[in-house]
Amino acid sequence: MGSGDALSRLRDICLALPEAVEKPFGGHTAPSFRIRDKLFTMTSEDGTTMMLKAGPGVQEALVAEAPERFFVPAYVGSKGWVGARLDVEQDWDEIAELVEDSYRLIAPKRLSARIRPRSGEPG
């Protein structure tokens, strides 16, 4: 999958979340996604990677399990964010789940509650 296809797919996942908006980060032109002006997903300028907030232990587990797909990003990795490579084969259901989890960690509870549970999740 080309980086444009991956970014398009990522954009669809992010913008489907309540009140999510796309807005570049700082002086960059790369897409980033926010809820009430707080970042929950960022992409690299070249579109080959993305970064998102993860709960305790998630970053370590993903990087240990699939280092070809996940990494500890510079600057935000120390704060628990995890990086995902978009220029390799990814499990897009897993990426959607990670994006939703990042959103839930950032968004107000009222907005988080509006996300429909994924198949197999308690409703």
How does this structure look, described?
This protein is an alpha+beta fold. It has a single domain (3-112), classed as Aspartate Aminotransferase, domain 1 (Alpha-Beta Complex). Helices cover 33% and strands 20% of the residues. It contains 4 helices and 6 strands. The chain has helices at 3-15, 58-65, 92-106, 109-112; strands spanning 20-22, 32-35, 38-43, 49-53, 70-71, 81-85. It has a 6-stranded antiparallel β-sheet. Strand 2 (32-35) and strand 3 form a beta hairpin. Helix 1 crosses helix 3. It is globular and about 35 Å long. The model has no long low-confidence stretch (mean pLDDT 90).
Kindly list the characteristics that best describe this protein.
single chain, 123 residues, alpha+beta, 6 strands, globular
SSE diagram, text form:
Blueprint: H1 3-15, E1 20-22, E2 32-35, E3 38-43, E4 49-53, H2 58-65, E5 70-71, E6 81-85, H3 92-106, H4 109-112
Antiparallel strand pairs: 1-2, 2-3, 3-4, 4-6, 5-6
What's a quick, concise take on this entry?
33% of the residues lie in helices and 20% in strands.
